[in-house]
Amino acid sequence: AGAETLKRAVELDVASRFQESLVCYQEGIDLLLQAVRATKDEAKRRRYREKISELTFFSDGKYHKQIRIEENATGFGYEKLFHEYLTEIVSEVWVEDPYIRSIHQASGYLLYNFLRFCEMLVKGPCKVKTIHLLTSYDDGSGRNQQMSGLEEIQQSLRNYGVTLNIEFSSSIHDREIRFNNGWMIKIGRGLDYFKKPQGRFSIGYCDFDLRPCHETTVDIFHTKHTKKM
């Protein structure tokens, strides 16, 4: 019952019905706390506590959900992470990540990761028309490849009626993604939380749900409940 109530709370959050969602969250947490007290199964108690700790609710209705991705965990493709926040009213997206660079970066296939993210936006159910990317220039010889790759993505998106605006900053450090329905997602490693595939024909090369991840933390907020800088 607690899990079903929390599921309903998330649905209400996505629909921007925040007061109703807060009531559901509180009811769901109360039910899970009752389950913790009632069960003697330590594994179940641990799962219930983990579920409760995922969600932090403040007395004034602020929302903060945290997801911790463990080292080598799978099942965290972009669709899994972002889909419930990409409602039909989403038409504009902001991506701030200093490392959308060439595919030869030691940490992975960074331009390809951004391309995969854009593909997810194009597929919907959202109706994205504009994507804003703020990143930093690649160093040295990688800059030409970075620019070439970004321009190719820009042109390809244009064929789908989506405008990609690209800006560069030498001082950007934070990584965050914002949707114009108010949701904001901060990922410790940005879009590059996947490990490099073992080979071009290994499982997980194409399907990110099957790709092992680096350990990272994902924090999800709604801008209605965050301080404006």
Q: Describe it for me?
A:
With 229 residues, the protein is an alpha+beta fold. The chain folds into two domains: 1-62, Up-down Bundle (Methane Monooxygenase Hydroxylase, Chain G, domain 1); 65-222, MITD, C-terminal phospholipase D-like domain (Endonuclease, Chain A), CATH 3.30.870.30. The protein contains six helices and eight strands; from the N terminus they run αααββαβαβαββββ. The chain has an eight-stranded mixed sheet. Helix 5 (110-123) links the parallel strand 3 and strand 4 (130-135). The longest helix has 21 residues, at 18-38. The protein is globular. The chain starts with a helix and ends in a 7-residue tail after the last strand. InterPro entries: MIT_dom, MIT_dom_sf, MIT_domain_contain_protein1, MITD1_C, MITD1_C_sf.
CATH superfamily of the largest domain: MITD, C-terminal phospholipase D-like domain
Strand numbers in spatial order across the main sheet: 1-2-8-7-6-3-4-5
As a percent range, the share of helical residues equals 25-40%
Give the second-level CATH assignment, the architecture of the largest domain.
2-Layer Sandwich
